Amino acid sequence: MKLEGVEIRTIRMPLVSPFRTSFGTETVREAVLVRAVGADGEGWGECGASALPLYSSEYTPAAAAVLSEVLVPALGGEDLDPHRVAGILSPFKGHRQAKAALETAILDADLRARDVPLSYHLGAVKDRVACGVSVGITPTIPALLDAVDGYLADGYVRIKLKIEHGWDLEPVRAVRERFGDILLQVDANAAYGRADIEHLAKLDAFDLSLLEQPLSADDLGGHAMLARRIGTPICLDESILSAEHAAHAIELGACCIVNIKPGRVGGYLESRRIHDLCVAHGVPVWCGGMLETGIGRAANLALAALPGFTLPGDTSASERYYETDLTPPFRLEDGHMTVPTGPGIGVTPDAAVLDEVTVSRAWIPLAGAAAGAC
Ligand code: NPQ
Ligand code: MG
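^ thats the input. predicted complex w/ magnesium ion below
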């Protein structure tokens, strides 16, 4: 893959409904898209960072800046194997979601040129994957029950409720009582502390599949303490930034399930390593979501088709988040979504829709590339 240059775009897409978590409410998804242009074609990657650094320290202006000013220039215009990208970028600390988007764009371009689907490249074994949905905090419990009712009617096979202080036992009890024996799990996005361990243990009454990231990302020890006190399985999201983090968390007993978000861990290749590590430890994994457009969603479906992804992911349909997606809409069929079969990530953005939602763009030419390529 000889790279000629990389386009960095910032887009803004309205969400169909506000999405509230313990760290804030999102009404518009701002994101950075990366288009890697090589001599043999181009590829796409989506950065999970959003408008403000509330989920993690990354946010869109910083992601666009580090891509344009540091990460893309570091690649040079040399012949590039996508598997070497992470190593070239490794001297630069952090910025995993930005690095993931760049690696994905280059991997996509390379796989398209070779006519290989991303799912096949990663080792996928499924043609379709079971899908869950993440339900934000609502103003009232009746509003939550309505939202869950709608998603169950859509066919989602698993419901995840966002929880925080003051919105935990009661909404969970209400959903369990109303809908009976559904697959139900909760996500705190690190809202609680060690002082809340006894309170969190009360969630054991509701037969949840898992409790996701109850404590701070840095507090693996606290998660291990909680895991000894509670019957509900602990799953980590924000704490797991690499395969090394996953190894330490498993070793400490801080979790027995891992949410793999490719952006959070620096890309699909690191995601596969975490998957392999977890499979070897008997730890189930599932594919998280970052309100991706069809670009990120397509690649997540490829990952979710690996054999260790035994729990339904946050790989929801396009219409869960967007009226108009950048790609042909991903639809739910019988609670499942079809894994794209085309080369690379298998989809490309609609040029007109993309231009409509683009708020800024920059072209970074690469040294050694032919002048004027774009
Ligand atoms: C999670 N995702 O599992 C995240 C959190 C999250 C689907 O629950 C803008 C961009 C807003 C990304 C809100 C889901 C977001 C976001 C929440 C990610 O923790
Ligand atoms: Mg989460």
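The radius of gyration is 20 Å.
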